Amino acid sequence: MKLKPTLITSAYFAPIVLFLAAVLTFTAYIFTNRGDMTSALLILAGFMLLITGVLLLTLADRRPLPVKLTEMLPVTPTLNLAAVLADLGVTSNTIHRFLPSGEHVQINPVTGGQIPEFSKDMTFVSINDWYGVQYQAMGEASLRQLKREENLVIPTGSIAQLGTCISEVMNDTLSLAEKVTTAATDKSVIITLDEFAMKKTCLALQEASPKCCTMVGCPVCSLMGAILAEGSGRDVESTSAVLEGSTLTVSFALLPAK
């Protein structure tokens, strides 16, 4: 769960101070009004503080990223990795795993069955008659930054709390959607992002192949999968990503605990 920043470090600290100062100024005017120049200056100062506070409050609500300039950045790396996997004959859905070392990886199985434990340094995995490909999660860098700079703490144990955590990250922190809703059970999680800001990313990937979104996924879907994997302590499979208009619906399967 995302820890809220302290009041002083919040972007809303200055507007709050200005609003309080405006209230105090108007209060002083009401109780000391003598109808002279001093009283006139008090009410003028109060209005100036109020208007400045409204201006700062408006600026504090800006999107943190210029999405129109950045939403295509993940497309080429995702397509390249998907092409490499396809050329190797790997077409399975990606599995998000949280390692005991604190790192997040994605695994694409080649053979069936439960995925065994293996070294984080293995890329092409061949162990205990199980084969697959392992690579660093696409959303790993973003998740590290959220933990470092936004004090993100991922709740453990409760799938419902994980849904709330993802909603806060996607909506409040990254401003990637106007509204985020989650529907969770012990076996699956469905996340709906209304007015998804990076819809051109989805369109570009699905134009190449809808399979790209579940076989590799962009950093946004990977970030959600990584949060689910870390919080649940289970492997998490990307099962679908559907874009309808500006609404993105992403589904994950929570695999049985090891």
Task: Describe the model.
The protein is an alpha+beta fold. It folds into 2 domains: 13-60; 67-254, Muramoyl-pentapeptide Carboxypeptidase, domain 2 (2-Layer Sandwich). The chain has 9 helices and 8 strands. The protein has helices at 13-32, 37-60, 67-70, 75-87, 140-149, 159-173, 199-208, 211-215, 219-232, and strands at residues 95-98, 104-109, 124-127, 130-136, 179-184, 188-194, 236-244, 247-254. It has an 8-stranded antiparallel sheet with strand order 3-4-2-1-7-8-6-5. Strand 3 (124-127) and strand 4 form a beta hairpin. The longest helix is centred in the first third of the chain and has 24 residues, at 37-60. It is elongated.
Q: Short summary of the structure?
A:
The chain has nine helices and eight strands. The chain has helices at 13-32, 37-60, 67-70, 75-87, 140-149, 159-173, 199-208, 211-215, 219-232, and strands at residues 95-98, 104-109, 124-127, 130-136, 179-184, 188-194, 236-244, 247-254. A hairpin with a 2-residue loop joins strand 3 (124-127) and strand 4.
The total beta strand count reads: 8
Architecture of the largest domain in CATH?
Answer: 2-Layer Sandwich
Q: For the report, how would you describe the main beta sheet?
A: 8 strands, antiparallel
Unreliable spans: none
Task: Give the helix proportion (percent range).
Answer: 40-55%
Broad CATH class of the largest domain: Alpha Beta
Q: What is the 3D shape?
A: elongated
Mean pLDDT: 87
CATH topology of the largest domain: Muramoyl-pentapeptide Carboxypeptidase, domain 2
The tally of helices reads 9
Q: β content, as a range?
A: 15-25%
Give me the strand/helix succession: HHHHEEEEHHEEHHHEE
Strands of the widest sheet, in order across it, are 3-4-2-1-7-8-6-5
Class per helix and strand makeup: alpha+beta
Q: How far is the first residue's CA from the last residue's CA?
A: 24 Å
How many discrete domains? 2
Rg to the nearest angstrom?
24 Å
